[in-house]
Amino acid sequence: MSQPETAQVLSLEDLVRCPRCQNVVRPIRPWPHWRKVRMAYFGGLGLALCGGPVILADGFIMIPTLMLYISAIGPLNSFVRVRPVCSRCSAELDA
């Protein structure tokens, strides 16, 4: 027996007026938890700071691994900065 399909409820709070196409549209929003991931990243960096003597003792594996970890902040910051866009014309929205 198949389950009945449920209709999605569209809240009026989800609708935003696009300044470019002058339509009321539902914006495409980025994943809302990127800021939390960024804070967890800095927590991991703090743990790496506490483990500094171990990292410095093993220069062959740990230091290059830490460099790769540190280089991940650039893409992570760009994900945090992404703003909602219009679903019709891809203009950035203020919502």
Task: Outline the structure in words.
The protein has 95 residues and is mostly helical. It has a domain at 32-81. 44% of the residues lie in helices and 4% in strands. The chain contains four helices and two strands. The protein has helices spanning 34-50, 52-57, 62-71, 73-81; strands at 16-17, 24-25. Strands 1-2 form a two-stranded antiparallel sheet. A hairpin with a 6-residue loop joins strand 1 and strand 2. Helix 1 (34-50) runs antiparallel to helix 4 (73-81). It is elongated.
Reconstruct the topology from this structure.
Elements: E1 16-17, E2 24-25, H1 34-50, H2 52-57, H3 62-71, H4 73-81
Antiparallel strand pairs: 1-2
List keywords for this structure.
about 100 residues; mainly alpha; about 45% helix
Largest sheet descriptor = 2 strands, antiparallel
Strand order of the largest sheet: 1-2
Averaged pLDDT: 86
What fraction, in percent, of the residue positions are helical?
A: 40-55%
Helices and strands, in N-to-C order?
Answer: EEHHHH
Distance between the termini: 42 Å
Low-confidence stretches: none
DSSP, total strands: 2
The quaternary structure here is single chain
Please tell me what the overall shape is: elongated
Radius of gyration: 21 Å
How many DSSP H or I helices?
4
Helix/strand-derived class? Answer: mainly alpha
Strand content range: under 5%
